[in-house]
Amino acid sequence: MESSVQTLEFQAETRQLLQLVIHSIYSNKDIFLRELISNASDALDKLRLESLVDSDLDADTSDLHIVLEVDRDARTLTVRDNGVGMAREEVVELIGTIAKSGTASLLEKVKAAKDAEAAQSLIGQFGVGFYSAFMVADKVTLRTRRVGTAEGTLWESDGEGTYDISTVEGLPVGTEVTLHLKPADGEDGLADYLAEWKIRSIVKQYSDFIRWPIRMAVERGQEDGVSVTEMQTLNSMKALWARARAEVSEEEYHEFYKQISHDWTDPAEIIHMRSEGTFAYDALLFIPSQAPFDLFSHQTKRGVQLYVKRVFIMDDCEALVPNYLRFVKGVVDAHDLSLNISREILQHDRHIRGVRKRLVKKVLGTVKDMQANNAEGYAKLWDQFGRVLKEGLIEDPDNTEALLEVISAASTHDAEAPTTLREYVERMKDGQDAIYYLTGATRAAVENSPHMEAFAAKGYEVLILTDPVDEVWVDQISEFDGHRFQSIAKGQVDLDDQDDSGDDNEKAQREAEFATLLPWLAATLSTQVKQARLSSRLTTSAACVVGDDHDITPQLEKMYRAMNQQIQPVKRILEINPKHPLITGLRDAHTKNPDDPALPELAEIILGTALLAEGGDLPDPARFAKLLTDRLAHTV
């Protein structure tokens, strides 16, 4: 029995809002079914909760479920649940909210919700998810009866000018939403929403892990000319992250990882965590055992899958994982989350920042545990993802300390095994206050650099940094455990002072001997160097070039130019070895005849060999080759 139908008219602003929902907010029409199934799942959750709270509630919770029903002849798709249902006033409040007064201000809020953090949970407040059905339907019929009530409610609308609402008798407890699909025009693909394969596909993608069974009658042939159907459950309901770790086997974890990552190898580490309290969520993360081929591609998608109450929201949620952890795969399932109106763009509110912070801490803690307890596993992880993790030293100042604890680097201490910074500090010589390092293109280039000579001779360990990212982070991180980072190719380095073995009189005598040559060298080579000075870092080479403490390195300068960033050329400092025969010979020749025209050419050769020794570029290779061959010709 049905009471008289009450027809209400949408306001003009509401009509605009519906058009926004139907045509602008959702980028994928498939979302409508996700929204309706999600609403049904919420209704089942509410009935189960109410039945636990109220023992006198006349509710059958023995078989809570969702049913999808297709009528191809009538072109209808129905989503039915036996959940808590709605009373008439709830229908008006939850489903018809956008038809109430004040929709002009509501429309402004919806438009602003695309970017504004203040617009939280609009989909729940205004029933917009329900209205996504009008993307595919020209009429939507809703029948519902709330548990504990005798009368049901019928709501119907074409999404245009009006909606009808009436009271009906004889409805079962729960909610039924029937979509009358729009007429097919041959290209819109709406007929697919009546096809078994399409419905299965949407349920698998968005609603596979919902805790309640999603059932559909599936045709299984014919008998005596009559179609035979059987009821099948479409979703797996196996959300591994919602179970205790002890209840999940390694095989199940590995299978799930391969499913979400499209990787054929087993993960290196499994991180299963649960957070309860004001903002509850479950997380199941994986650290892969090998890097994907596109790890350093600008088009690489990053982020973990985001679910809300087991309903799939998005595949690559960047808000939850920083860029330098883009190799981490997995799922985060939030129990209560602030979303924008489309449920497709995550609101960056304090809850999300809190989840992100805890995920990062957990991942870095896992890497630290591997470093301490699984040396082989950590070595493989660092080989695959070390370059990416070091990006965090540039991007994530809040976790600098944790990142410095887990990074490794090659060093002169061991030709094979890298070292951690903690191990380096433990091996520092007495009186050493700096962590020495040198950047370069390859290990061989760094080890053979003239800058290494004094450090090798005196037994000081030097970190060998050859990744491009090293050029950047060492300039931004000042210290580790109270020890500053010091490039051995920058600034003044006097190991004699550090060893307390220097002779001040000897140094003063050397400086006096070269007092005339040094300013002459600086003036002669002024287009390339800004200063010439005696070196304490050279033992066998004649000269080297170094930078001031805050100068960028030649490698970093190249990187900036490769990115089309215009920067001023950086002049460096020429350091000469006062004990090298070539340098003492130049000094003596300059003292004897400072106007000798061959001396400037010899100065160019000395600078050129210093640049080549560190793997640098010559400003004029052809000129350098001619100067060198001409000089060699005089010795033959």
Give a structural overview.
The strands form 4 sheets. A 9-stranded mixed beta sheet has the order 1-6-5-4-7-3-2-8-9, covered by helices on one side. A 6-stranded mixed beta sheet has the order 16-15-18-17-20-19. Strands 10-11-14-12-13 form a 5-stranded mixed beta sheet, with helices on both faces. The chain has 3 domains: 228 residues, Heat Shock Protein 90, CATH 3.30.565; 158 residues, Ribosomal Protein S5, domain 2 (2-Layer Sandwich), CATH 3.30.230; 227 residues, Heat shock protein 90, C-terminal domain (Four Helix Bundle (Hemerythrin (Met), subunit A), Up-down Bundle), CATH 1.20.120. The chain is built from 22 helices and 23 strands. About 5% of the residues have low confidence. The protein is of the alpha+beta class. The protein starts with 5 loop residues before the first strand and ends with a helix. A hairpin with a 4-residue loop joins strand 2 and strand 3.
Descriptors:
single chain; 636 residues; alpha+beta; Heat Shock Protein 90; Ribosomal Protein S5, domain 2; Four Helix Bundle (Hemerythrin (Met), subunit A); 3 domains; 9-stranded mixed sheet; 6-stranded mixed sheet; 37% helix; 22% strand; elongated
